[in-house]
Structure formats: structure tokens, C-alpha cells
Amino acid sequence: MDNKMDNRMDNKIYLGGISSALATIHKMIVENEFEDIEKRDGFKIGAAGRLQLLLTDPEFVWLRSMSQLMAFVDEAYFQKESITDQQVEVVMTRVQDLLLRQSNSDFSNRYRRLLVTVPDLIIQHGHLKLAISAAKNS
After folding, report:
1. Do residues 112 and 102 make contact, with C-beta atoms less than 8 angstroms apart?
2. What are the angstrom distances between the C-alpha of 36 and each of 11, 13, 59, 116, 118?
3. pLDDT tens digits, 31-42
């Protein structure tokens, strides 16, 4: 295999790692938010109710930037063309801007609080940092 082919395969692997880490983090956040709502309201929310809340409830607006980022990453990952180095760079920058760099955005503030209160989330945050680091060091 030549270097160009290796690089394309590596880019696919890097985006796959980033996508997987984002999906796990998103799932953990969503589950935590639903647990909090269920405790507060005193009843379980079914699958259809959860979907409805995610799509329409103002309590979940802050999470949409992450959902949009995940869609962006997956769009690059599943494209028919080879993933370019530039696409990997753009993905890494967007992930770092949203999840790894602290800002005053609603997402950043809530995510930082969750990193402290949801123990396994910090582990997954570390996995995301490793996936970004692997892509950077390629």
C-alpha cells in the first residue's frame, strides 16, 4: 500500500474514533439529563417521549450544537470520497472548539458541570482527547 492510501485509511480510522467518542459522550449526557428529569417529575419517560423531548423541549436546546457536530463528523466519515487531511483538520478544530476549549457558551458551561458530576463522562472525555491526539500526530 502506498503512502497516499495509508493516509486515507488513517483518516477514516481517526474520524471513526472521534465519531465513536462523540456518540458515547452524547449518549451519556442524554441519559443523565433524562434521569434528572425523571427524578424531578417522578415518572419514567418512554422512547417516544424521549425523542419528542430531544427534538422540541427547550431544556435540550443546549445539546443541539453537539448533535450538529456529530452529524458533521459522520457526514465526512460516510462520504463516498476519501477523507482528506483538511477534513480531518476541520473536524478536529470543531470538536476542540465545542468540547475541549472552555468558552462562555451554554453548551460549554453545562458540559463542564457534567464533567464534574457524571464520573464516567470524564473518562469518555479523555477518550475523545486521545482520538484527537492520534489524528493530530498522524
Report:
1. yes
2. 38, 35, 11, 15, 12
3. 999 999 999 999
